Amino acid sequence: MGHYIDYFKTGDVHAFCKAQATWVTDISPRIEHIIGFIESYRDPSGLRCEWQSMVSISDPEETSKLEGLVQNAAKFIRLLLWAAPGGENGGLGPFESSTFTAPNITVVHALAFCSSTVRDGCNLPNIREDHGGKNIVFSNRLVIKADANPLSTFVHPSEAQTLKDHGGIVYSIKNAIHELLGHGSGRMLRESRPGVFNFDKDKPPTNPLTGKPIQTWYKGADTWITVFEDLANTMEECRATVVSYYLPDEKEILELFGFHDSDALEGAETPAANRDFAIFKYLLLHGEGVFKVDYDASANTVQVSVDRSKTVSHGKPALGQLALRLHVWRSIADVESLKAFYVSLTAVDGEHEAWRQAVMSAGGEDDLVSSTAVRTDAGGKIVQANTFLKDDSEVELRIYEATNEGLIRSFVEREV
């Protein structure tokens, strides 16, 4: 807290970094918190951070269920395409740290979240290289997401119940992998000062995308944010998300979450979503029919159908190749290759723009017709409780209904 106070008094970013380094070492506290200008997602340039403050209560029972994932993190990272099973660096390959230390992960229930959005989880990848990692999963946020079922809007009616039945556990598994193995993996190859490298400059690692020795790396105080600039955040989130989609079909990972029989495996392999447009578009281009999009221009509706028989055989290899590209380019600071690939991949044009317009208009008065691909429900609402200190020093927890009125009342009585 002393570092926080120094930071808020002086604006010294070094004091803030010290606060975060201390935060990382505070393992699984009963009350968890984050405060400050943390994430730069809302800045188009990817540099200015948004104010964010969170207070939560840990859930030891749920956290203990993830211990197996933490303890076996290095084993699961060896399943990714940039690893070198049986080879250098203990099988992790040249694009992972030589001594992989699994970051801490804690499941919490968010009590208060002051930000433009309430995230599924968080970590501080910007300090992981020097201070280690720490991951937080907001359990009650995932429950809201699963209950809201927004994706059922655009899937075929025959798949809606499957999505509803398995959405919750898929969200939980995906989010844990995203934070722990997605953001928790990776190494930046660097020349820290002239002639000083963290890899063998005379025998540099082979770039698996080209089959040739790497030609680029970080220099001096470069970070992935300063190198990739406005693409840094979206690229990193895409990388972590692809990892979280690539690994869940592994039997050993599913067993950690309580799935042991074949029926459970079949259910867990059902894709929950492709939230990120880059992943969505990449699978359309390279997934060999793992899913298709049906667009009806006259009705202005969009519907996605998944071919589950191709999820593992075609979808997973495509995701693996996407993860490999993003991971290697991030590791070697190859901004030119990343830009050439990623900018075109994320461009919403042509038929994709027509789909976007249909999705954006879903639920409007003109669209509330007989189409099964139009959303008519209100969706999930994140209504936060408030705490009040009473005259007798007792703490009152005030909970509000998940309605528009409850949402407004929660904000008004918070007085922020």
Structural account:
The structure is a single chain. The chain has 416 residues and is of the alpha+beta class. Among the domains are: 1-71 and 103-148, Fructose-1,6-Bisphosphatase, Chain A, domain 1, CATH 3.30.540; 383-416, no CATH class. The chain has helices spanning 2-10, 13-25, 60-64, 67-71, 73-77, 128-131, 139-148, 157-182, 224-228, 232-246, 251-256, 262-268, 277-286, 311-331, 335-345, 351-361, 404-414; strands at residues 31-39, 50-58, 104-114, 121-123, 134-138, 190-193, 196-197, 206-207, 212-213, 218-219, 291-296, 301-306, 386-389, 395-398. β8 (206-207) and β9 (212-213) form a beta hairpin. α1 runs antiparallel to α2, α8 crosses α10 (232-246) and α13 crosses α14 (311-331). Helix content is 42%, strand content 17%. It is globular and about 70 Å long. It holds the Pfam family Peptidase_M49. It comes from Bombardia bombarda. This is Peptidase family M49-domain-containing protein.
* Mean pLDDT value: 82
Low-confidence stretches: 262-275, 364-378
Total DSSP helices: 17
Q: At the first level of CATH, what is the class of the domain at 1-71 and 103-148?
A: Alpha Beta
Rounded to the nearest angstrom, the radius of gyration is 22 Å
Main sheet makeup: 5 strands, mixed
Judged by helices, strands and strand pairing, the structural class is alpha+beta
Q: Tell me roughly what share of residues is in helical segments.
A: 40-55%
Q: Which strands sit side by side, in order, in the main sheet?
A: 1-2-3-5-4
Q: In percent terms, what proportion of residues is strand? A: 15-25%
Q: How far apart lie the N and C ends?
A: 21 Å
Give a count of the beta strands, DSSP E runs of length 2 or more: 14
CATH architecture of the domain at 1-71 and 103-148: 2-Layer Sandwich
Shape: globular
Q: What is the CATH third-level topology name of the domain at 1-71 and 103-148?
A: Fructose-1,6-Bisphosphatase, Chain A, domain 1
Pfam family, one: Peptidase_M49
Keywords: Hydrolase, Metal-binding
Protein name: Peptidase family M49-domain-containing protein
GO molecular function: dipeptidyl-peptidase activity; metal ion binding
